Amino acid sequence: MVQDISVVNKFKDILDENDIKVNALMKKYTSFKVGGPADILVTPTNYEQVKEIINFCKKNSITYYVIGNGTNLVVRDGGIRGVVINLSRLDKLSVDGEILSTQAGALLSSAAKLALKHSLKGLEFANGIPGSVGGAVAMNAGAYNGEISQVIESVLIIDNNGQIRKISKDELELNYRMSAVLKFGYIVLEATFKLEKGDYETIKNRINDLTRRRKEKQPLEYPSAGSTFKRPEGYFAGKLIQDCGLKGTSVGGAEVSVKHSGFIINKNNATAKDIMELIAIVQKKVKEQYGVNLNPEVRIVGEEIDEV
Fold first, then answer.
1. Under 8 Å CB-to-CB from 102, ≥6 apart: which residues?
2. Are the C-beta atoms of residues 198 and 169 closer than 8 Å to each other?
3. Would you report the helix, strand and coil content of the chain in percent, each value rounded to 5?
């Protein structure tokens, strides 16, 4: 536990008291709507605050986790020991010519909408991705033949020495659902995208088409973390899961979506334990039937209740 009054008081020196929460239930901060309490959750409003918090945690050997919109995250039921740094209020966006800049906590969909407003093409694929820009850059998010690597120009990060610096697209080492951000544990503060001038109506129609396709094919009416598994090379996770007869399989309140087998959903007040057990069942069955290892695309953090 890091709820020692000296730790909380240190954060009060950095942040407004209202931006510090003790025993914050993480189910309120994740799209899956599961997760126990974090010892301390802090919500910085500028880059220097983020830097100070991280450097304080490192100096005092306090474990910390950084989250944005919590859309690619499963927090176990025992919660998180340590500090959760919530970047959701770092959400400013701007456009200068064909360059779109956005802070890490801004929604990727907000960036796509701003691009549309300025008749800039390249981010249409991002409109329906529910995560924050920081998370999207970290995992090179993508959909419908588009991904971050196609449009990113540079990123402002906090590196492993606790310093704020800019890195180029090449330094990001972007691959399928992977980047230098994840590889080295960088913290994304800001991203710059290089887009192209386009026709407003064409861009809008593309966004509307992708939105329609998502609504038709994805279980957006239930809490989830989007695609649960990474795409195995040469296969599609959802097809493998469906072909194993797992569509509709449930554990507690968690279910393999009958609408899209690649999604595990929180259908009825699921716990993180329900979700984790269902992930394990799916992995085991697909491995047995097809010899394919399914790796979670979702980030899994925290402790089980019996570990606390």
1. 92, 93, 94, 110, 111, 114, 133, 190, 191, 193
2. no
3. 35, 25, 40
Q: Exposed/middle/buried for 197, CB within 10 Å: 0-12, 13-18, 19+?
A: exposed
Listed in sequence order, the residues at least 6 apart from 169 whose beta carbon sits closer than 8 Å to its beta carbon are 149, 152, 153, 154
Q: Is this structure's pTM higher than 0.85? A: yes
Q: What are phi and psi of 192, to 5 degrees?
A: -120, 125
CB atoms within 10 A of CB 23: 13
- All domains of the chain, ordered by start, with CATH? 5-86 (3.30.43.10), 93-216 (3.30.465.10), 219-301 (3.90.78.10)
d(CA 214, CA 178) in angstroms, rounded, equals: 23
Torsion angles phi and psi, residue 41, rounded to 5: -120, 125
- Please state the φ and ψ torsions of residue 43, each to the nearest 5 degrees: -125, 90
Number of residues that this document lists for the chain: 308
Q: Any bridge partners for residue 296, and if so which?
A: 229
Q: Which residue has the tokens 């094919």?
A: 217
Cα separation, 120 vs 300, whole angstroms:
35
pLDDT 10s digit of each residue in the chain, 308 long?
565 778 888 999 999 999 999 999 999 999 999 999 999 999 999 999 999 999 999 999 999 999 998 988 999 999 999 999 999 999 999 999 999 999 999 999 999 999 999 999 999 999 888 889 999 999 888 888 889 999 999 999 999 899 999 999 999 998 887 888 989 989 999 999 999 999 999 999 999 999 898 889 999 999 999 899 999 989 999 999 999 999 999 999 999 999 999 999 999 999 999 999 999 999 999 999 999 999 999 999 999 986 44
Q: Which residues are catalytic?
A: 177, 227, 297
